[in-house]
Amino acid sequence: MAQNNPSFSVKLYIYDLSRGMARQLSPVMLGRQLDGIWHTGVVVHGKEFFFGGAGINYCSPSGTILGDPDSVVDLGSTEVNEDLFMEYLASLAESTYSGDKYNMFEHNCNTFSNDVAQFLTGRKIPSYITDLPSEILSTPFGQALRPFLESMAVNPGGNNIPGQR
Amino acid sequence: MAEQGAADPVNNNNNNKPEASEGTIIKVTVKTPKDKEEIAIAEDASVTQFKEEISKRFKAKQDQLVLIFAGKILKDGDSLSQHGIKDGLTVHLVIKTANKAADGGSTSASSSASTQVGSSSTSSPATNPASTAGPAGPGSAPTQTPNLMSGFGDLSSLAGLGMGSANFMELQQQMQRQLMSNPEMLSQIMENPLVQNMMSNPDLMRQMIMANPQMQQLMERNPEISHMLNNPELMRQTMELARNPAMMQEMMRNQDRALSNLESIPGGYNALRRMYTDIQEPMFSAAREQFGSNPFSALGGTSESGAQPSRTENREPLPNPWGPPNSTNPSESGGGTTGSTTTSATANPSVSNPLGINPGSLGNGMFNSPGMQSLLQQISENPQLMQNMLSAPYMRSMMQSLAQNPELASQVMMNNPLFAGNPQLQEQFRAQLPIFLQQMQNPEALSVMTNPRAMQALMQIQQGLQMLQTEAPGLMPSLTGGIPGVPTGGAAPAENPASSPSAAATNPAQQQLMQQMLQMFAGGGGGGSATTQTPEVRFQTQLDQLNAMGFINREANLQALIATGGDINAAIERLLGSQPS
User: Fold this and answer.
1) What ipTM was predicted for this assembly?
2) Residues of B with CB below 8 A from A160's CB?
3) Residues 102-161, chain A, touching B (beta carbon < 8 A)
4) pTM, rounded to two decimals
């Protein structure tokens, strides 16, 4: 049938939080090569959405202090319009993606991006991003750092989406 | 031929009823943001029928359901197979709430719609002024600024404007993590001309602050605050401060020093206390509701407005493996409890923020810092603080890391002022440490510790036991072992039943230890805030310690303690100065 639905493109913005240091230092420190410490945000409807220590946030694309992404992956397009998407996010924000649910290893920005990408397009984000925590944890150094890292969260700022209570 | 197979009886029945229709039954997972369910449906069913099933299962009206698969919205007229929905696949569901704004296709309309979505938070309407007030630049910068400013303690009500964090703790964490993950971010942002522009515009600042309803309430109650706001000089100074972390520190230091001086004046302590209860507390609670911290107590000079005894200041250590260890943790722990330590640039400054985090002062060495000591002392006097602290998620993880690293934990404990003067206690405590840590992990323990009434009860038990000890010393060895069975919290780490044999040997000291710990946690809870207790009660633990050390002149001890504000070491010096022995 004719595509009479508006279609919005969905992109994944990938940032390397280590700004290249991971690529250089990871073989030394971790014993394996990590090309970056990835943080991701999903860009759709002209905004970038991501999950951090304060919950789900959004801002204008490349609008966080991280600046421009290191790479962009096109996830396809979605018919989900903005209203619906915001509603979905609000629902997420009060359940599985509230701020206190942030866990650096298991429930982080990339988990969020993955879920949102699947919601919007049915596709997942590249696996090298979602595999990162397990890669880190598989090294002894990662294990040692785990308690510290778990108490941290990446939060590049932006506008918060609180859940509807 | 969807019509027969999809006839009513088929889909109106329970899902597990075997179908005799044409389509085979497939199991489709329907996933909402909150949960997911598996729904069995005929393969060739239409979306409408699917929605019927879903509405039954999810208890929502059919027209509230929006189904999304592979990025497409499933329309009622479609069929499942048309979209390629097969067995085992996942379809996303959004259940619309009744009140939805009109669809906005354009970003401008959608920004208002999106703020409506998050309308429960008072901050969202304010994000508009915040973002429109800022010069036209990247939209994130102005909204980030208020976030940052909360890190400086003052002007943090701006945070209420810019960020929608659900609570104070989150904002804190947000701040800390943001800064911890990249200290450069801070300087970058500060150097952002946008930010500087905004900050140098006092009118803008004032507007933003006043827009916060919490602030308005505060202002009504305390006209001094509005005076402060309207004083351009002060505003400018504040903004200078915010811009310049070093200056901020300096200011903090002066502030705290001034306060501690105040304390030592006869009657000064009372004045401080009054200041606190009259001004600070309502401000605090008002500010805390929003999650901002007291924005103006950090302002320099005016010690009467919103200033507060630094006993509520707080340094919350956070592990920072990548940050500069022990960076800028200058301390002047003069005067015991009011001794204040300033924080590094990224931390929340003292008086304004009970949960000032000091990421810079981390690392092993940090635990030895006077900051930690004063922190613990202050905690002992403010149960609310303890509660806040313990309820912070990062606190929990810190506990965890402490548990895993006993050396670290022992360092922390050694610096606890309770133990500072008593090496014997330290030894015992060190031995008990693993047990203690285990107990700290116990969430029940934590909840006990955060409950002032529970602490109070523990306190009473402890006192009762103490009385028993004096009355019937023979009973004690068995009883001290029995105590910890009751409180699960950290209050009784040293008296774990498992360690009662050793308890018998070092009984009085451990009693003291436990008592001190209990007092430390419950001291504020018992009979109102610490500030209403007499000095003698407040310094009970210190007095006992001095006693144990051999200073038997209770009066002199008390005087010394009062003079030094509870600082045992300083008190000892005083005592030694006056007593030749």
Assistant:
1) 0.82
2) 118, 121, 123, 163-165
3) 118-123, 145, 147-161
4) 0.37
